[in-house]
Amino acid sequence: MARVRVLPESARSPGRRETENALSLAHRMPRLVLEARRVAANLAHGIHGRRRAGTGESFWQFRPFVAGEAAQRIDWRRSARDDRLYVREREWEAAQNVWLWIDRSASMGYVSSLAQAPKVERALVLGMALADIFVNAGERVGLLGLMRAHASRQIAEKIAETIAADPSGLDDDLPPRAPIGRFDEAILVSDFLSPVDAIAAVVAGIAGRGARGHLVMIVDPVEETFPFSGQAVLHEPEAGIELRVGDAGSWGQAYRDRIRLHRDAIEDLARRRGWTLTIHRTDRPTTEAALRLVTLVTAARGGNANVVTNLAG
């Protein structure tokens, strides 16, 4: 029979192991999908550069002047320090950031003997890996309500440090209200066991500001199958409620039906908002969810956001 446990608060903050796992995962991910995402971006003005020359406002580099270019492009101050003429290049920019929110509430501390990792550890590794991938592709990544968007090569460490310094996040099972720009991407990573109406309100608030979004539902395999029989103690970690039952097997079908209805409702609200839903089980490799999320964000930037991906099978 499967065994389960709930991690304490101290175990729901990222440590060195989660940071290193995220970086290792990100280094294994193919970068070609991200290149397709950059090609799809067609905005000419924005707040961050994609590390290529263009019409943005941020300085990128000096390069030698090429015969035939317009003389007004020459940077005379830089050229005066050398025997060559130089052009000041600026970064090409797009008005999009990627915003992450990672649930660390009590229910995310759940782990069974069938899982590869606790839900919160999988969520942290996945979130930091995605951040590293996006930053290496020239994006800026931030944490909703916690950290402004950065393009730092140490983004995984920055996220880990920021989350570790935010104990209040251990009590929040939904993201805070925070500014998010039009055309930005929001990636919310959670088990989404909150009431559907509360989840819908969060999605509506972000979508109403013109941002696109992706829900990543982290699920322990036991939460789907409920493989228990005989006497059992059911524990609700958010409220600290316990219920002793004499025949857990008789509860199984009703529980699975309730989970299915809850998931169908979340899938429906995501579809109606043009968001995506990814269901990731913790007995599956993290790379599966990471690659699918990169692909879904790419599709959303290309205008095909009405996608629902189920990775639970």
Describe this structure in words.
With 313 residues, the chain is of the alpha/beta class. The chain has 2 domains: 4-40 and 96-310, Rossmann fold; 48-93, no CATH class. Helix content is 35%, strand content 24%. The protein has 9 helices and 13 strands. The protein has helices at 16-28, 32-40, 76-79, 119-136, 155-164, 196-207, 221-225, 252-273, 286-301; strands spanning 4-6, 48-64, 86-94, 98-102, 110-112, 141-143, 147-150, 185-190, 212-219, 232-236, 241-245, 276-281, 309-310. It has a 7-stranded mixed β-sheet with strand order 7-6-4-8-9-12-13, sandwiched between helices. It has a two-stranded antiparallel ribbon with strand order 1-5. Helix 1 crosses helix 4. Residues 22-57, 91-95 and 303-313 have low confidence and may be disordered.
List the helices and strands and how they pair.
Layout: E1 4-6, H1 16-28, H2 32-40, E2 48-64, H3 76-79, E3 86-94, E4 98-102, E5 110-112, H4 119-136, E6 141-143, E7 147-150, H5 155-164, E8 185-190, H6 196-207, E9 212-219, H7 221-225, E10 232-236, E11 241-245, H8 252-273, E12 276-281, H9 286-301, E13 309-310
Helix pairs in contact: 1-4, 2-9, 4-5, 4-9, 6-8
